[in-house]
Amino acid sequence: MIPELLWIVGFYVAAAVIVHGIMGRRTDLNRRQYVLVAGNHQMQIEWYIRALQQFSLRTGTEIGITVVLNESSDDTGRIMEKFARHDAAIAVFRQEPSMLSLAESGLECLMPKHAIWVELARKEDLARLPL
């Protein structure tokens, strides 16, 4: 009787491990990382962030948002820092004026290969956002 009970417990443990492995892979495939390159976008940035969060809730897709502040002289940075304080999935990166490009900052190396880069100043890039 003990060997049969051990077989049953072993099958349950194996099934739990398999389901856990499948669910772990599935969340990695569903996770999307958006990188928004923003300048002086204080009037639009909150709307973009909230639209991405609504997309995440509506579809069940986990998202991460990184905002790169590029020569911003308005309140865009302050707005994004407030969002970042309240949501762990949002990060803010200030690009120094001495950096000529994002490649020099090393940010591209830190982002996943499937990250969706959107420059908010370019209208054709806005089509990449699920708005």
Which terms would index this structure?
single chain, 131 residues, alpha/beta, four-stranded parallel beta sheet, 5 helices, 19% strand, elongated
Q: Structural class of the helix and strand makeup?
A: alpha/beta
Query: Which stretches of 5+ consecutive residues score pLDDT under 50?
Result: none
Strand order of the largest sheet: 3-2-1-4
Overall pLDDT score: 81
Shape: elongated
State the helical fraction.
40-55%
What string gives the helices and strands in order?
Answer: HEHEHEHHE
Concise structural overview:
This protein is an alpha/beta fold and 131 residues long.
Task: Describe the structure in your own words.
The chain is α/β, with parallel strands linked by helices. Helices cover 48% and strands 19% of the residues. Strands 3-2-1-4 form a four-stranded parallel sheet, with helices on one face. The longest helix is centred in the first third of the chain and has 29 residues, at 2-30.
Any chance you could write out the topology, listing elements then pairs?
Layout: H1 2-30, E1 32-38, H2 45-59, E2 63-70, H3 76-86, E3 90-95, H4 102-105, H5 107-110, E4 116-119
Parallel strand pairs: 1-2, 1-4, 2-3
